[in-house]
């Protein structure tokens, strides 16, 4: 699979208001600037975020990681690159397939996934078993195991390098596994019914369990819900519209990555009514 390392969505330099034409490289990160690189991986998801204090996050690692690692090295160089966080939003190969390749070239501090206590893939799932092998190898080398996402919190993913200087940076864990932030303090709501009441055909898929994150810097809001759906498949229950519950919590948002790679199931009108600043 050809992986193109073009920056698709640039982003925002609050201090310099810089915006690069599509297809051109972003200027080098500077202190006080929030950079969001939505890396084109062909068929998967991967985003590199550099917070204003220099803290680095990778959100997903695409289907394969060599080109992502190369991109990260280029974006974070010439100093030795490091990812302070890597967040794997769900256990599909187009989101975590490349994590071992990335980790082989770029040190990763805290690894976060959706945890192993809610509908994890079966043991014979090759992607999941490879991921578990990666975690075991990482632990043998002294690395930490993956933390489970804690939904509703603004203190799990934080600026690590100089938080005091940038108090308006906030990363809110908005959704995962059917638990959605309510927008009120750290409160969350479980929007999926109890598993033992759900017919087998309606059980939550990996996509509806995706982690969603809101990143805030001053008055700027960015949201990525990765593969969470907004318009359930025909006949599927309404509670599978995770986007709708998320939109009620996060409200108007400046930049919203279209979920599920722009497939047909995200983009519920109800969620856009809530999220669109123009409305
Ligand atoms: Zn996907």
Percent of sequence in beta strands: 15-25%
Structural class: alpha/beta
Give helix % range: 10-25%
CATH arch. level architecture: 4-Layer Sandwich
CATH homologous superfamily designation: Ribonuclease Z/Hydroxyacylglutathione hydrolase-like
Q: Could you tell me how far the N terminus lies from the C terminus, measured between alpha carbons in angstroms?
A: 40 Å
Estimate the mean pLDDT confidence.
86
As a whole number of angstroms, the C-alpha radius of gyration is 18 Å
Total of helices: 6
Number of strands: 12
Tertiary shape: globular
* Count of spatially separate domains: 1
Bound molecules: zinc ion
Task: Kindly report the spatial arrangement of strands forming the biggest sheet.
Answer: 1-2-3-4-5-6
- CATH class category name: Alpha Beta
Overview of the molecule:
The chain has a single domain, classed as Ribonuclease Z/Hydroxyacylglutathione hydrolase-like (Metallo-beta-lactamase, Chain A). The relative contact order is 0.12. It has 279 residues and is an alpha/beta fold. The N terminus is likely disordered. The protein is globular, with a radius of gyration of 18 Å. The structure holds zinc ion (ZN).
Give the secondary structure arrangement, pairings included.
Layout: E1 35-38, E2 47-50, E3 56-59, H1 66-76, E4 83-87, H2 93-96, H3 99-105, E5 108-113, H4 126-140, E6 147-148, E7 169-176, E8 179-181, E9 188-190, E10 212-217, E11 220-224, H5 242-250, E12 255-257, H6 269-275
Parallel strand pairs: 3-4, 4-5, 5-6, 11-12
Antiparallel strand pairs: 1-2, 2-3, 7-8, 7-10, 8-9, 10-11
Helix pairs in contact: 1-3, 5-6
This protein binds zinc ion.
């Amino acid at each position: 699979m050809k992986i193109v390392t073009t920056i698709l969505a640039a982003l925002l330099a609050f201090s310099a208001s810089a915006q690069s034409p599509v297809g051109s490289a972003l200027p080098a990160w500077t202190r006080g600037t929030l950079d969001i690189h939505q890396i084109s991986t062909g068929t998967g998801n991967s985003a590199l975020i550099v917070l204003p204090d220099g803290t680095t996050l990778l959100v997903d690692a695409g289907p394969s990681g060599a080109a992502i690692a190369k991109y990260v090295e280029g974006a974070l160089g010439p100093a030795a690159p490091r990812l302070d966080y890597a967040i794997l939003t769900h256990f599909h190969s187009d989101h975590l397939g490349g994590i071992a390749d990335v980790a082989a070239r770029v040190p990763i501090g805290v690894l976060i996934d959706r945890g192993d206590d809610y509908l994890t893939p079966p043991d014979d799932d090759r992607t999941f078993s490879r991921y578990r092998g990666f975690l075991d190898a990482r632990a043998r080398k002294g690395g930490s195991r993956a933390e489970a996402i804690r939904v509703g919190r603004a203190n799990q993913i934080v600026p690590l390098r100089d938080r005091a200087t940038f108090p308006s940076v906030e990363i809110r864990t908005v959704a995962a596994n059917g638990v959605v932030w309510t927008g009120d303090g750290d409160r969350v709501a479980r929007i999926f019914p109890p598993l033992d009441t759900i017919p087998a055909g309606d059980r939550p898929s990996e996509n509806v369990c995706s982690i969603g994150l809101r990143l805030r810097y001053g008055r700027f809001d960015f949201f990525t819900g990765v593969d969470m759906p907004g318009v359930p498949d025909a006949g599927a229950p309404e509670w599978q519209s995770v986007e709708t519950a998320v939109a009620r919590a996060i409200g108007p948002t400046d930049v919203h990555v279209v979920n599920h790679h722009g497939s047909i199931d995200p983009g519920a009108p109800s969620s856009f009514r809530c999220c669109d600043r123009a409305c």
